[in-house]
Amino acid sequence: MPEGPELHLASHFVNESCRGLVFGGCVEKSPISRNPEVPFESSAYHISALARGKELRLTLSPLPGAQPLQEPLALVFRFGMSGSFQLAPSDALPPHAHLRFYTAPPGPRLALCFVDIRRFGHWELGGKWQPGRGPCVLLEYEQFRENVLRNLVDKAFDRPICEALLDQRFFNGIGNYLRAEILYRLKIPPFEKARTVLEALQQRRLSPELTLSQKIRSKLQNPDLLELCHLVPKEVIQLGGKGYGQESGEEDFAAFRAWLQCYGMAGMSSLRDRHGRTIWFQGDPGPLAPKGGRSHKKKSKGAQQSPEDKMEDPPPPSKAPSKTRRTRRGLPEQTTAQQPKRTSLQKDSEVSQITEKRKRRGRQASGLCRPQRIKADTSSLETEGTSAS
């Protein structure tokens, strides 16, 4: 899922790609998108973007003399699981381009597209940030820090620190991979009580005898959890590209993958939190770890994995494998002596079932029993067109 750094990289992409481009006409929405229509039309306008936490604001600004007369319009996007912006030729739109802004003639016609494969992304008209979200961990660090430490009495901090870090009222921009990387660097158990971890920061004071440069150096060398909530996302932004990529083949995703130290890495353990999100960590999970939860340790690609390593929720036990499956798995063939014995009741039941099947076949062959043809009612089924998805 795109997190704070990905939204900031997306805003940078929009501003760089659209600099010098003039857009024109109507804004086009995919017919299968459930998001609102964008009632904007202008013969000439510019597009700019600004990110804050896990939101991105897109502003459409008409140029002087553009027709019809139109006030600037702002849209606020939340990317969901797979949202992103792409610039493409108008005759080669990417799949799942659910909102499209076209350039004005002359010149090759291009389209800035909001692409969302899983359609969990959302946009709203008006340009207001979603109420209730806290200050951005990247752009509003001082306000972010104050907001957390001032509200430690909130029930959110009764929860494990790994869950509190996903609460956008306090950690706007932090998501699943960032929380794992932050806690790993500080060796904080993910299921330690959030208030226990954060209350210690209220007492942290640097010596007044230190110069400003010494204070800055001290913070960079020994950052606390809230400082890492600001510094770690900045590291991802400095990598460039798109950050947490959706396609493993992207070149910039390779740089991001090399940057990771904990999230999804070999040798790390994982557990699911109360919301079903997987947290990666090393060592003791902490006192608030879910009861009955089994920690799974990720092995390297070269290591042989057990079924429990390959899937978090193994399926229920099935019947004994067939001879073909046993051969494929390298298991010894099951002999007659090893096969479970059937009781006389089971044998009689099987014989009666076979006899009944033969009788039905005989009646069907003689015309005594004709199978009825059932017509399925498909009037209630709805299908979505794939051309615009």
What does this entry look like structurally?
- The chain is α+β, with helices and mostly antiparallel strands and 389 residues long.
- Among the domains are: 4-125, Alpha-Beta Barrel (N-terminal domain of MutM-like DNA repair proteins), CATH 3.20.190; 141-286, Orthogonal Bundle (Helicase, Ruva Protein, domain 3), CATH 1.10.8.50.
- It has eleven helices and twelve strands.
- Helix 1 packs parallel to helix 7.
- Residues 302-329, 333-352 and 366-389 have low confidence and may be disordered.
- This is Endonuclease 8-like 1.
- Residues 333-343, 377-389 have a biased composition (Polar residues).
- Residues 279-389 are annotated as: Disordered.
Quick structural overview:
This protein has 389 residues and is α+β, with helices and mostly antiparallel strands. Helices cover 30% and strands 17% of the residues.
CATH class placement of the domain at 141-286: Mainly Alpha
Measured between the Cα atoms of the first and last residue, the distance is 19 Å
Q: Per CATH, which architecture of the domain at 141-286?
A: Orthogonal Bundle
Q: Quick one: overall form? A: elongated
Supply the number of helical segments: 11
Q: What fold name stands as the CATH topology of the domain at 141-286?
A: Helicase, Ruva Protein, domain 3
Overall pLDDT score: 80
Order of helices and strands: HEEEEEEEEEHHHHHHHEEEHHH
Main sheet properties: 5 strands, antiparallel
Taking all Cα atoms into account, the compactness measure Rg is 29 Å
- Low-pLDDT segments, ≥5 res: 302-329, 333-352, 366-389
Amount of beta strand: 15-25%
Q: Helical proportion?
A: 25-40%
Helix/strand-derived class? alpha+beta
Main β-sheet, spatial strand arrangement: 1-3-4-5-9
Strand segment tally = 12
Region (Disordered): 279-389
Subcellular location: Chromosome; Cytoplasm, Cytoskeleton, Microtubule organizing center, Centrosome; Nucleus
Domain Formamidopyrimidine-DNA glycosylase catalytic: 2-121
Main location: nucleus
